[in-house]
Write a structure and sequence with these properties.
With 234 residues, the chain is α/β, with parallel strands linked by helices. Helix content is 24%, strand content 23%.
Length: 234
């Protein structure tokens, strides 16, 4: 089955416990004001890949000690059948591929999904898609409701464990305030192997605290660096 993806990254350290495989799906119909990922809204953009290719990344991440997978977006539930297949396959593989002793709590790798839908909006098809998720963060991003809660962008968003593994792994984090870096910065070059240097692409992975994006822009400007496009600006 094909799935449309905005990007992937390992190790992701700012969206869930431990070092994780991050998968950002493409397409979001919810259009929250203040969203930092407007580049993920267009359902025709990004890259169409086979779910099996993402599971291959998952195998590789588990072999390198991944504590879990985080699926975000975009809106993962905009592709419910493909998301279900991805999570089902990931749950099956983790048993065989999680390296003993690589997670702090000795538990298998977990599956965390971010959705902008509220719990009350999870109809049968969306619940089926989330059947293999160990924990879910639900709710629109609301720019006027900042929060210090770890891994959440606004105070209305709920982190809800859905399995036994999820309940054990996420219990210490449900009401925990963030105490480390909220954002991971990844810089990628578009340079072809033998061609001229292309523009740099800077990816901010995580949930920035209020004002951090403006601070980041100013910090770059003061060092003579200009952002040509910003995914958080219309
Ligand atoms: S914050 Fe999430 S749910 Fe809201 S528009 Fe952005 S990608 Fe979509």
């Amino acid at each position: 089955m094909r799935i449309r993806v905005s990007g992937t990254h390992f190790p992701l350290e700012t969206l869930g416990p431990g070092r994780r495989l991050g998968i950002w799906l493409q397409g979001c119909p919810l259009a929250c004001p203040g969203c930092m990922s407007r580049h993920t809204w267009d359902a025709e953009s990004g890259e169409s890949v086979d779910v099996e290719a993402l599971l291959e990344l998952w195998r590789s991440a588990l072999g390198r000690g991944a504590a879990g997978m985080t699926v975000s977006g975009g809106e993962p539930l905009a592709q419910p059948a493909a998301l279900a297949e991805l999570l089902r396959g990931a749950a099956r593989l983790r048993t065989a591929w999680t390296r003993p002793g690589t997670t702090d709590d000795g538990l298998p790798a977990d599956l965390l999904v971010y959705t902008g839908y509220e719990e009350s909006e999870l109809d049968t098809s969306r619940r089926t898609a989330l059947a293999s998720a160990d924990a879910v963060v639900t709710g629109r991003f609301r720019v006027a409701e900042p929060t210090g809660l770890v891994w959440r962008g606004s105070a209305n968003q709920r982190l809800t464990p859905r399995t036994g593994l999820g309940r054990v792994r996420y219990a210490p984090h449900l009401d925990r305030e963030a105490d480390g870096p909220a954002v991971q910065i990844v810089v990628e070059s578009a340079q072809a192997s033998d061609g001229p240097a292309g523009p740099l692409s800077v990816r901010l992975l995580g949930v920035p605290r209020r004002g951090e994006l403006l601070y980041f822009e100013r910090w770059l400007r003061e060092r003579g660096l200009r952002l040509r496009e910003r995914s958080w600006r219309p």
